[in-house]
Amino acid sequence: MVSHVPWLWCHMFPGYGVTCSLVMVSHVLWLCCHMFPGYGVTCSLVMMSHVPWLWCHMFPGYGVTCSLIMVSYVPLLWCHMFPGYGVTCPLVTVSHVPWLWCHMFPDYGVTCSLVMCHMFPGYGVTCSLAYPTHPRSAC
């Protein structure tokens, strides 16, 4: 019943439009998470990763904020939901943040690489790999 209701509204009333996908996705996740408790931690994982994806792709006008949410949610989710992720956590977070600012805001320019390399010394060689166009000495 729960899964059929949104399907019914979406397919019987095409004019339901964008809201259709929103309802479908939110209902399916709700169903899996609450109907199947054993789904456990994966429930939060699916919910958190799908929500930003839904808003970003279903509402293009969401603009730059879309990438911001996607990039910031993914690493944060894996790092905090799975403590065992360990050292890789800071690596993922650090590598995603500069990518966002550097590529989404071109004006940030070279300063981006410089800031990341000098603010995070432990970033080491990875710094050069992440920014091949920047001198290794910057790290």
Provide an overview of this structure.
By secondary structure, the chain is mainly α. The chain folds into two domains: 1-62, no CATH class; 67-139, no CATH class. Helix content is 70%, strand content 0%. The protein has seven helices and no strands. The protein has helices spanning 4-12, 18-35, 40-58, 64-81, 88-104, 111-119, 124-130. It is elongated and about 60 Å long. The chain crosses the membrane at residues 6-29, 61-78. Keywords: Membrane, Transmembrane, Transmembrane helix.
Q: Low-confidence stretches at least 5 residues in length (pLDDT < 50)?
A: 1-7, 13-20, 36-42, 45-50, 59-139
| Global structural class | mainly alpha
Mean pLDDT metric: 46
- The helicity comes to 55-70%
Give the DSSP E fraction (strand runs of 2 or more residues): under 5%
How many domains, as an integer? 2
Distance between the termini: 58 Å
By DSSP, the count of extended strands is: 0
Helices and strands, in order, run as HHHHHHH
Largest sheet, strands/sense/barrel: none
Rg (C-alpha, Å):
20 Å
Number of distinct helices? 7
**What form results from the Cα inertia axes?**
elongated
